Amino acid sequence: MAGWSDPSPVSGRLLTHLLGLLRPLVPEDGRILVAGPHDESLVAALSAVAEVTCLVRSQSDAAELSDRGGTVLCGTLAKLTDTDHYDVVVALDGVERLCSVEGPQYDWAESVQVLRRSLRPGGALLLAVENELGVHRLVDRTTVTFAHTDSAWRPLGEFDTKPGSPARLAAHLTGDGLTVGWLGTAWPLPSAPTFVATADALRDGPSGALSAAVSGAVATAYAGRPVLSDPRRLAAAAVRGGLGAELAPAWLVLAFRGPAPATTLPAVLTGAGPVAELPEGRLLEELLIGACLRHDLPTLRRLLAAWVAERPTDSFDNLVLDGETLRLLDPVRATTEPELVLRHFAHTLLAGGYYQPWPAADVPALTAILLAVAGLAGDGLAGHGPVDSDPAPPAPDSLREHEEQVRRLEERLADAATRLSYTETELVRRDAELRRARLQIDAFSGKVGYRISKLGARAARKAVRAVRRSPLFKD
Amino acid sequence: MHHANHFYGHAHVLAEYCGLDPDDPPRINGYVQHGWNVVDGLGAGTPYVSGRPIFVWSEQTRRRAWSMGRRYATVVGAPFLYLLELQPEFAEPQHREGTIWYPFHGWEGQHIAGDHQRLIDEIMATEDGPVTFCLYWHEFRDDRTRRRYERAGRVICHGYRGLRWLDTDTKFLHNQLAELRKHRRVASNRLSSAVLYGAAVGCAPAVYGDPMHLAGEVQVIAERIRRQWPELHGTHPDPAAATASALAELGAGNLASPAELRAVFGWQRALVGTS
Question: The pTM is what?
Answer without folding.
Answer: 0.87
